[in-house]
Amino acid sequence: MVVVAIAYAAFIQWVWGWGTVINLWSHAGWGTIVLALSLLVATYVLRTWRIYDYFPRETTGRFATLFRVVQLHNILNIMLPFRSGETSFPLLMKREFGVNLLRGTSALLVMRLFDLHALLAAAGVGLALEEESLWVWVGWLIFLLLPALGFVARDLVFGLVRRRSSTKLARIIEEVRAGLPVDGNAFMRAWGATLINWFVKIAVLAWILTLMGGISLPAGFGGALGGELSSVLPVHAPGGVGTYPAGIMAGAVGFGASAGERALSALGQAAVNLHLLVILSSLIGTALALFVPTQK
């Protein structure tokens, strides 16, 4: 990780110079950066509440401890390659709250499916803004409601899939089902918290990217989507070094940003800064978790 970080820093210095890159922070406005960091850190608190509500019997009265677990899991996900940091969640939940590994793993899988859907739905706002078509918005709304429709039809869906699956696949399907919220109210709370979390995060990232990169709002949403998708793929680099900014640039260009040499250079600088902002928010959240008093 240290070698990769040093090589990455040297590359940025060679291409743009760190002074030029950091100057974009003052261009965006330090008040804006502080607000963006505050909103990003707030999403970590919301993620913690989602898990707190998901495991009410085990976590009641221990929100601070759970916040520390969530932040440790988050920083490991960022720093370790190939999504290996995900394994920390069920292990930490078992150690701190006595949640068995099977339930913790299945709940994590369900929440990651929620996250992926909400991420695509949030970024889809950029696509809808770019197309400016009523039918695109209708399609976006249908996609937004898919988890609710799936939860209503869960018995039918799981029954059909189980009957057509092998024994091993049927066990995996049952694990997924075990990780679902226990009832409709729990589902609405988990789904709502996930949507708010990702809509806030994507909106903040798109906003900062438009300020630093001088691109349109739809392209900003595309860049935010590209960066976040790069972090959930199993091939991301440690800390997202290189892969996260590359994902931002690919997403922004895909949503209409200029591909000219000068525009790409400016977008690259903005992408690096946005990545630094995400890393900084994670470090702030982790630092806060270390100083929050926990309960046993």
Can you give a write-up of this model?
This protein is mostly helical and 296 residues long. Helices cover 81% and strands 0% of the residues. The protein is built from 15 helices and no strands. It has helices spanning 2-15, 18-28, 30-54, 56-59, 63-79, 88-97, 101-131, 134-144, 146-152, 154-163, 167-178, 184-213, 217-232, 243-254, 261-291. α3 (30-54) packs across α15 (261-291), α7 (101-131) runs antiparallel to α13 (217-232) and α9 packs antiparallel against α12 (184-213). The longest helix has 31 residues, at 101-131. It is globular. The relative contact order is 0.15.
State the main characteristics.
mainly alpha, 81% helix
Question: Count the strands?
Answer: 0
- Biggest beta sheet attributes: none
Q: What form results from the Cα inertia axes?
A: globular
Structural class: mainly alpha
Give the quaternary arrangement of the chains.
single chain
Distance between the termini: 34 Å
Order of helices and strands: HHHHHHHHHHHHHHH
Low-confidence stretches: none
Alpha carbon gyration radius: 20 Å
In round numbers, the mean pLDDT is 83
